[in-house]
């Protein structure tokens, strides 16, 4: 298996229940809901993406020919020390590329594996922390996991329906866009109305981390 990696770097997890944790981010290239080209955004299935996941030219990116080689790259970015090893695998859509061999190779190097996925593809077995972020108008097949992270507001998504899915944590994250302040207000309103939900802010953007 050849893996196409947009970028790979050490930072803090900025979103969700593990916000604030030291983590290597492994961002795979490519997504099944958007080409990543601006000229396609308005006709894409997912139109609010805040991420460049096209190509393999980012910091620490490239093509990797084996799970062994990619896991060694992740380990080198983490550095010395066996405590608290965490890799966050994202994209693009990571389930297009994350296979059992990579899960195994990262576990062998002592990493806990967190994944950020849109849920339209079944999750690879062995993930330690699964975050699913549903997108309006798509068929979410992965309806269980550790945290469900709803970017808000999105038309045609009913938070009450999502509460019936099998997740331990329900998070609402304001959509970062031209009207971000309105997104924050709407997210706070959702939490006030539905106490099972918690607010997830993108902490990395607040403090200027990647
Ligand atoms: C770039 S996506 C990559 C992983 C996967 N494709 C997904 O959508 O979950 C990582 C996270 O950022 C969230 N996200 C993307 N664009 C956003 C935006 N404009 N504002 C807030 N969160 C956003 C996604 O919903 C997802 O939870
Ligand atoms: N610091 C940081 N935390 C994140 N959590 C989820 C992210 C993502 O793009 O998947 C992300 C990201 O891009 N940066
Ligand atoms: S599914 Fe995720 S990576 Fe793909 S376009 Fe939407 S937010 Fe971006
Ligand atoms: Mg991001």
From TrEMBL:
GO molecular function: lyase activity
Record field: catalytic activity: 6-carboxy-5,6,7,8-tetrahydropterin + H(+) = 7-carboxy-7-carbaguanine + NH4(+)
Names of the cofactor(s): Mg(2+); S-adenosyl-L-methionine; [4Fe-4S] cluster
Residues noted as binding Mg(2+) in the record, renumbered to the chain: 51
Amino-acid positions noted as binding substrate in the UniProt annotation, renumbered to this chain: 12-14, 27, 90, 210
Residues bound to [4Fe-4S] cluster: 31, 46, 49
Positions in coiled-coil regions: none
Database matches in Pfam families: Radical_SAM
Domain of life: Bacteria
Pathway as given in its UniProt record: Purine metabolism; 7-cyano-7-deazaguanine biosynthesis
Segments forming domain Radical SAM core: 18-210
Gene3D superfamilies: Aldolase class I (3.20.20.70)
Alphabetical UniProt keywords: 4Fe-4S, Iron, Iron-sulfur, Lyase, Magnesium, Metal-binding, Queuosine biosynthesis, S-adenosyl-L-methionine
Nucleotide-binding among keywords: no
Enzyme class: lyase
The enzyme's E.C. designation: 4.3.99.3
Free-text cofactor note: Binds 1 S-adenosyl-L-methionine per subunit.
Similarity section: Belongs to the radical SAM superfamily. 7-carboxy-7-deazaguanine synthase family.
Assembly and interaction partners: Homodimer.
Annotated protein name in UniProt: 7-carboxy-7-deazaguanine synthase
Gene: queE
């Amino acid at each position: 298996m050849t893996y196409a990696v947009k970028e790979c770097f050490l930072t803090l997890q900025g979103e969700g229940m593990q916000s604030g944790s030291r983590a290597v981010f492994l961002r795979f290239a490519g997504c099944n809901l958007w080409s990543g080209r601006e000229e396609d955004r308005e006709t894409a299935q997912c139109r609010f993406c805040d991420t460049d996941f096209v190509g393999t030219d980012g910091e620490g990116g490239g093509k990797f020919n084996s799970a062994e080689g990619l896991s060694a790259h992740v380990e080198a970015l983490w550095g010395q020390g066996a405590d608290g090893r965490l890799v966050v695998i994202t994209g693009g859509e990571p389930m297009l590329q994350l296979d059992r061999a990579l899960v195994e190779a990262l576990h062998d190097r002592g990493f806990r594996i967190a994944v950020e996925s849109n849920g339209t593809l079944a999750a690879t077995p062995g993930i330690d922390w699964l975050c699913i972020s549903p997108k309006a108008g798509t068929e979410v097949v992965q309806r269980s996991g550790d945290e469900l992270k709803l970017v808000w507001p999105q038309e045609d998504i009913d938070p009450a329906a999502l509460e019936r899915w099998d997740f331990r944590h329900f998070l609402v994250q304001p959509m970062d866009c031209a009207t971000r302040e309105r997104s924050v207000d709407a997210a706070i309103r959702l939490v006030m109305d539905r106490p099972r939900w918690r607010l997830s802010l993108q902490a990395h953007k607040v403090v200027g981390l990647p």
